[in-house]
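User: Okay, second chain of the day. Same drill as before: sequence in, structure tokens out.
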Amino acid sequence: QVHLVESGGGLVQLGGSLRLSCTTSGITFSDFDLAWWRQGLGKQRELVARITGGGETVYTDSVKGRFTLSRDNAKNTMYLQMNSLKPEDTATYYCKLRWFDYWGRGTQVTVSS
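Assistant: Same drill. Structure tokens below.
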């Protein structure tokens, strides 16, 4: 059974920081590319960032320079460090396997002004 669990969301003020985590089971973690997606209320789900098994990363333009994606294969975990948060970052953030339709349940991030 493939299982992905997100954590680390919360309420933060404009300019603050959060670190999201995604812990996986049921896969050989280092073999898989992973991604963070997000969905705000009334909006379409969008890709935030993705990371290969070797640690190469790609970010959507709106988060470049503010968010940093990383992974620890020994812990079966990937992280999203989010700095300089803005109200438009408010969304539910989801962990996903690239190329496969396996999702976590999401963690809520709310940024107040």
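The chain is about 0% helix and 50% strand.

User: Thanks, on to the next one.
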